[in-house]
Amino acid sequence: MANGTDRPPARRPGGRSARVRARILAATAELVARDGIAGFRYEEVAESAGVHKTSVYRNWPDREELVVEALLRYAEDLASVADTGDIHRDLVEFLLALAGGLETPFGRTLEQAIYHTDESPAVRQAVARILDQRVAATRRRVDAAVDRGELPPVDSAFLGEMISGPAHLIVNRGMRPFTRVDAERIVGVVLAGLRATAPHA
């Protein structure tokens, strides 16, 4: 009969430690969105996450590492573009997801980090990595649309800037919610402009 010494005991994936880390990261994103990267304190993170502050210190002795991990942890939702074969619909859904993400504590944290150039090199690198992921996702989808003849040849980075810029503006101004009508109009105008100005063979 095996006595358990043949191999190390299996560890449960996740578990309490993973849940605690997730709560701390979520609390960090929310507090940084509210107070800025320079303004948040470990004590507030611990209180918001419902953990002892030693849990925060133990996992992240460096506060910048905590901010960077919080940014990277929540970045994936803002960096994907579906491919249904309909470029107009896919870009509309991307814009709605982007606007929704920008309205979350994480999105506000990211926006703050983008526009505060005095942040640490580690934070700037994390933000650059997140933006690069978003640009790469848009480029893959746009390049596929060009290959299929859905779009004329186009600079995918330029297209991404043209459609995402208005979403950032509307959300950041906070005057009204960003709606599907907004997304449809933005994508429709940009794609119509690209097609109208494309060089003809």
From TrEMBL:
SUPFAM superfamilies for the chain: Homeodomain-like, Tetracyclin repressor-like, C-terminal domain
InterPro entries: Homeodomain-like_sf, HTH-type_TetR-like_transc_reg, HTH_TetR, Tet_transcr_reg_TetR-rel_C_sf, TetR_C
Domain HTH tetR-type residues, every copy: 18-78
Superkingdom assignment: Bacteria
Name of the protein in question: TetR/AcrR family transcriptional regulator
Coiled-coil ranges per UniProt: none
Residues annotated to bind DNA: 41-60
Keywords for this protein: DNA-binding, Transcription, Transcription regulation
